[in-house]
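During the second year of the project, the team shifted from modelling isolated chains to modelling whole assemblies. The rationale, set out in the original proposal, was that interfaces cannot be judged from single-chain predictions alone. As a representative example for this report, we include one of the complexes processed in the last quarter. Its constituent sequences, exactly as entered into the pipeline, are reproduced here:
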Amino acid sequence: MKKLLSFVLCACLLLTLFLPAALAEDPVKIIFWHSMGGVNGEAINKMVADFNEANAGKIEVEVQFQGDYDEAINKLKSASMGNMGADVVQIYDIGTRFMIDSGWIIPMQELIDADNYDISQIEPNIAAYYSVDGQLYSMPFNSSTPIMYINRDAFIEAGLDPDNPPKNFDEIIAACEKLVKKDENGNITRYGFGMGNYGWFFEQWVGKMGLDYVDQGNGRDAPATKVVFDENGAALQILSTWDKLIKEGYITYLNRGNDDAKSAFITGNIAMVLESTAALKSLLVNVDNRFEIGTAYFPSINADDAGGVSIGGGSLWAINNGDDAKRAASWEFIKFMISPEQQAYWNAQTGYFPITVATHELDAFKANIEEYPQFMTAIDQLHDTKPEYTGSLLSVFPEARAKVEEITERVIMGELTPEEAVTQLATQVNEAITIYNLTNN
Amino acid sequence: MTTSKALRTRPRRIHQTFWEKMEPYVFLAPALIIFGLFLYYPFIRTIYLSLFLTDKYGMAKVFWGIGNYTSIFNDPSFWRSLTVTFEFVVMVAVGGLVVGLCTSLLTATKYPGVTFCSASYAMPVAIASAAASMAFRMILHPTNGLLNILLGTQIGWTGDQRFALPVIAFLTVWLTSGINFIFISAGLRGIPPELYESASIDGAGYWRKFFHVTLPGLSPTLFFQVIINIIQAFQSFSQVKILTEGGPGDSTNLIVYAIYRDAFFNYRFGTAAARSVILFVIILIITLVQFSMEKRSVNY
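Output from the structure prediction step:
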């Protein structure tokens, strides 16, 4: 009897030892791919760590940096040959059409409807970009527009009004003439203006003119079949502007991408630069009060351009791995990332604007705007744009963007006239679209 | 009795046991499997893919015959990229050889500090090309780069078609100079000192010894280094990706970078495969030429 009692007691003891472990399920593990480096990447890590802490034991998000946007989408393409490898992926704006057509994703609208989640909070301009046929396909997360950064000290020194910066390229050229500074040898130590050769700006200028990039309602009614920037004259105006700025010596060529232009602005070699609003925090950190940074709307090519900017940046896509637990966990994670509190933190750490209107009411957001009013420019610029200038969708956008950059260089080098360049560019991009449509439909 | 002996031995040789027949193939198998898996299969697959258009998953979708090849040959940017590649290969192969030869001759004699010099010349071996390219990106910045500040110039080193390719070639020569230095130094040590002694006795000066003893003695090493340099030049990638992305225009669009762009950026594996096949043919021809030259000008 004694033996039996001790046995039962022992068994009870053992059971209590194992019970908590047996009752608590393993947390659902999901993998999150992102493309944010530097200051912005640290902000992501902090947000994910906060999410994991709040959901300890239930959901565990593993965060994986996948290189820049191009590399991330290309890794996803390679991964698609097997298991996808990720559950939530951050993809850039121009990957939208590709992702919708890919068949790998769970449309965000399904998750929203299943949860009766209220998305009226989301900025209408941002939601419009990621919606096709009235469906939201991915969740906006890090949204940006390009803006113009100015060196306020240089403006004052040159006798210009920093509160009234140039709005178009005629005004930029006029300002350049006052801002340019030369040393005793005649070398230019400060250019009035500078910009990286970045295909994104080309797309934005087309939108600023209120014109389309591709046919089929700018690629939104159906997959595009050809570009229209050659027929509507947009490309010619943009390439002629580049040509004029370089030939007449207003700017110096600062290579592809934005890095070299940004570093020239930080060292004071150029007094105005075009960059994404997402660069604001890192510019503030790097300039470190050596001069005051001002922000202005993205300049238009002509004075009478009446369109608007469209958003860039990235959004979160839920990948379909056929696992309901992961699907639910992904949705929880996405909801967390777009919550007003997280968006306020994200905005202050990066310069991407908050994607929900409710964020504007938070004290953290207000305090940051008070200290750095520069964060407001991008938000105002977006609100001043009508939702109909949502920007184009195109499956071969990465290739088209690279072609734009290459052709721009060949105009700058004097190898092609702007007219020849437009024809070549249109032919090459159209060929890429034709082949894509031929092999993927 | 001799005939019966012959009868007894001959069948044994013809009717080998199964194991005896298979034995050599078993020894060959590991090498064959590895070559087959990683060399021959991808090679055949590349040729196969080059005849198709691929979809967004990289799978062969539409049979295109020689369409990929004709569109490449009709594309002026392919011919530009080919010209640029040859210019680059010549610059790197010759430059790497000259730098390697000079540095190893400089450290061939003993003097104080020779170890430090040797270590410095060999150092580029240990530097990753991507890291070096990032550093050079800052050095070559058009407005605030170190090089422009030192020279007092304002040159867009990577954004100007006159400089972009020589700059990339210079960086590549520097990166390969370490391995050139090590091999050529070893080659120098391998030349028998008696040859120099007897040349001295015959009254030969430094340059005479250099042209008639050093160079012929080094020719196997130099030949090997030329091949290695050419292969490395053809494979140069990260310098281009980080510094110029093939630009400005097409002026640094080396053929390997063009293949990368087609395959992993534009996701057109068909064209990329066709470009690879063309590159294979080019390298095959160069290698054949090199080996026919070896017979004439290399002394073992």
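The radius of gyration of chain B is 26 Å. The beta strands of chain B are 52-54, 60-63.
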